[in-house]
Design goal:
The complex is a heterodimer of chains A (about 400) and B (about 300).
Chain A (H helix, E strand, L loop, with lengths): L1 H17 L8 E7 L6 H17 L3 E2 L2 E9 L4 H13 L5 E4 L3 H13 L3 E4 L5 H4 L7 E3 L6 H12 L5 E6 L2 H13 L4 E7 L7 H10 L3 E5 L3 H12 L8 E4 L7 H4 L7 E4 L8 H14 L5 H19 L7 H9 L11 E2 L5 E12 L5 E13 L12
Parallel strand pairs in A: 1-3, 1-4, 4-5, 5-6, 7-8, 7-9, 9-10
Antiparallel strand pairs in A: 2-3, 11-13, 12-13, 13-14
Chain B lengths: L2 H32 L6 H19 L2 H24 L7 H23 L15 E5 L2 E4 H23 L1 H11 L1 H6 L4 H23 L9 H16 L4 H29 L2 H26 L11
Antiparallel strand pairs in B: 1-2
Helix pairs in contact in B: 1-5, 1-8, 1-9, 1-10, 2-3, 2-4, 2-8, 2-9, 3-8, 5-6, 9-10, 9-11, 10-11
Classes of the chains: A alpha/beta (about 400), B mainly alpha (about 300).
């Protein structure tokens, strides 16, 4: 009797440990973004887009039951790394995705790939990860940081502009943005000013700017920083005096908060809500229907990230242990991207088009970004030759 | 470097300083009188900004929105004191920090639920949109000039209230010996509630003035709260005079550092080194200053006298 009892207990324990018998392993995706604090709105755009992608896939990524674990990095690299560790060790995720900030990405990506897990970045594109630190298990569905300002640099160069005053926050991406800009802009750069990441007040810098009296201003101020900079630039009366060109500053997040202070501004981008293709029309249409606001590139990239993972899981028929197969599938970028068809370079960064966008009054009277023309076709980043990976 | 530029940057520093002062005054008042650490002060600043935007939409008048937003933050401050904080006075400072940190999270989520996570549109009222010519060839944004004036007026008003009125006398008495004040038949509970509401309204005033120049969004109070804590440590905890001096010092050091540190460094070291060290050092300046004050004068520049 006693042995039977013990055997029953053991059997129960075994059953508990084994989990639901016969069911395939669920796919676990860890998604790291900023969900609280001033950058929380960017995280919301990304999270909503992940949820929309899950809806479009019937809540089954690659045909598997899917669980997405969201993590809030609070815009801090150390918190991001902790989250990555927790997702890898506690939740045992199969893929880590997301990450807005380049300094966070530089802490997260090596942690994830070092543990032998796939990382699909959906925003930050620090140059290190495109060059010497590139990794077989690291992909991005966004861009390499330098690419977008390269397009703006090219556009401003073609316009024959000179005497540029360049400003950006003092962190990994800020430096990349200015160096990307200077790669294609050959005119004179009067000054390069770096401000604190998350800074609220730019009055001191704007006073210095006015004193330097440049002909053009180029800035990179994502999220809340962009809102503050655009407002204060207009309030200083400089909007009418010195044209402002920017990257990642005038977007669907800042426009509703600054209103006319963004009207007429130029941006460069690989994507825009009005980009014409089937996948994008479905994404933008369903997004507006479900959430009631206009999506941003942060969202489009995150939607693409889930679709990329979906394509890889399908290619290995749900066998998540087949990482080689998943990497090979991801390299094909065989999914319907919101930016249209694109290919991956040897460093797992997209080769894609970049467009000139302008903030104009739309049909309904609201300000919106519209594509003006293509600046670069199939544009490669500047670091792929430093990446030793060949395939 | 011409002197007009220096004057303008000093005005910028002063403007940042008075903004910090509005926050620091309430925080230090609450600390000085109730010996209570209120990290949720930034949330009241945020509420001030949100209320102003909401009331502006509702009434269409900027002046009305300012008055209503001030009243609303006053009421919220008093409610928070009565409902949540009153029971915590006897506890340790660590408990204060934990509880008010919880309030920060609560208010951030509340605002996100009520108004959404996206930043709200807030612009300078047309009447305050232009520029004033403070000196020949020195045009300064009118709105920022108004902030300076309002801040200085509040400082003066606070001075008069604290040193010349009966309420101020009670506040000072409460700060030095609350048991004695209570024993003399003063309703110390009510006094605490009033002071807390008053501090909340000051934070609300800071927030509603910040709305048009910064971003009105959940969590907007935290960024400034950090600087305000620096101000209070430098000025001396619990002292309004210290808060004013500390705020202006921090505003000046931060602004002038951001403006002139890099060019000054470039005259000493190579321009390339100045390029990389300048911005990093400029953003650390106020913390270096705080560390120095803590080392040489741990009680702050103008410590409150208390028994």
């Amino acid at each position: 009797m006693r042995t039977i009892k013990a055997a029953t207990v053991l059997a129960l324990v075994a059953a508990l440990l084994a989990g639901p018998a016969g069911a395939a392993d669920p796919l676990k995706i860890g998604f790291i973004t900023s969900l609280s604090g001033p950058a929380g709105i960017i995280g919301k755009h990304m999270k909503d887009s992940v949820e929309l992608a899950l809806d479009h896939l019937g809540r089954k990524v690659g045909g598997l039951e899917t669980e997405v674990i969201y993590g809030d990095d609070q815009r801090k690299p150390d918190v991001g790394k902790q989250l990555a560790d927790e997702m890898l060790k506690k939740h045992r995720v199969h893929v880590v995705s997301g990450v807005i900030w380049s300094n966070v990405m530089l802490a997260v990506a090596p942690t994830v790939t070092g543990a032998g897990t796939l990382m699909v970045g959906t925003n930050a594109g620090p140059h290190e990860l495109a060059g010497k630190m590139c990794h077989e298990l690291y992909f991005t569905t966004s861009w390499q940081n330098d690419q977008t300002p390269e397009a703006m640099g090219k556009f401003m160069q073609d316009q024959g502009l000179t005497d540029v005053y360049a400003m950006a926050p003092n962190y990994a991406a800020g430096k990349d943005m200015i160096s990307g800009f200077k790669r294609y802009f050959k005119g004179k750069v009067v000054a390069e000013v770096y401000t604190k990441l998350g800074q609220q007040d730019y009055q001191a810098e704007i006073t210095q700017l006015r004193a330097a009296n440049p002909k053009v201003v180029f800035v990179f101020y994502p999220g809340d920083m962009g809102i503050q900079f655009l407002k204060q630039y207009a309030q200083a009366g400089l909007r009418e005096q010195i044209p402002l060109y920017s990257v990642y500053t005038v977007d669907e997040i800042s426009i509703p908060a600054v209103g006319d202070a963004a009207l007429g501004n130029f941006e460069t981008r690989y994507w825009s809500p009005d980009l014409k293709n089937e996948a994008n029309a479905r994404y933008v249409g369903d997004f507006k229907k479900k959430f009631g606001y206009t999506p941003t590139f942060y969202g489009a990239q995150s939607y693409d990230g889930i679709m990329l993972i979906d394509s890889a899981v399908r290619a290995v028929k749900g066998d998540l242990s087949n990482k080689k197969g998943m990497v090979a599938a991801m390299r094909k970028a065989d999914f319907k991207s919101t930016r249209g068809r694109f290919t991956y370079n040897n460093n797992h960064h997209p080769i894609q088009n970049f467009y000139l966008l302008r903030a104009v009054k739309g049909v309904g009277g609201d300000i919106e970004l519209q594509i003006q023309k293509t600046v670069f076709e199939n544009h490669k980043d500047a670091y792929y030759q430093d990446c030793p990976m060949k395939w | 470097m011409n002197w007009l530029l220096v004057v303008e940057q000093c005005l910028n520093g002063l403007q940042l300083g008075v903004m910090l002062f509005l926050m620091a005054a309430g925080l230090t008042l609450v600390f000085g009188i109730m010996n209570f650490v209120n990290l949720a002060h930034g949330s009241l600043y945020m509420l001030g900004a949100y209320f102003a935007v909401a009331f502006l939409k509702w009434t269409g008048s900027f002046a009305a929105s300012v008055v209503l937003a001030l009243l609303a933050t006053l009421v919220v401050g008093m409610l928070v004191e009565v409902i949540a904080l009153r029971t915590l006075y006897e506890r340790d400072h660590l408990d204060h920090v934990l509880a008010t940190f919880g309030l920060i999270l609560f208010f951030n989520e509340l605002v996100a639920i009520a108004w959404g996570r996206a930043a709200l549109f807030a612009s300078v009222p047309p009447a305050l949109g232009g520029f004033v010519e403070i000196l020949p060839r020195l045009r300064y944004p009118l709105y920022r000039a108004v902030i300076i004036l309002v801040g200085l007026a509040v400082a003066l008003l606070l001075y008069v209230v604290v040193s010349r009125t009966r309420l101020g006398m009670l506040i000072r008495a409460g700060a030095s010996n609350r048991t004695m004040v209570a024993a003399l038949g003063v309703n110390i509970r009510l006094l605490y509630t009033v002071v807390f509401g008053f501090g909340a309204a000051l934070a609300g005033l800071g927030g509603l003035m910040a709305g048009p120049i910064y971003t009105v969004q959940p969590g907007m109070g935290e960024e400034i709260l950090i600087e305000v804590l620096v101000v209070i440590v430098i000025g001396g905890i619990g002292s309004i005079r210290g808060a004013l001096v500390g705020a202006v010092v921090v505003g000046m050091v931060d602004t002038l550092g951001r403006a002139f540190l890099k060019p000054m460094l470039a005259t000493v070291v190579s321009p390339a080194a100045a390029d990389s060290a300048g911005p990093a050092l400029a953003s650390m300046l106020i913390y270096i200053l705080m560390a120095a004050v803590l080392y040489f004068r741990p009680q702050g520049l103008f410590p409150a006298t208390r028994s």
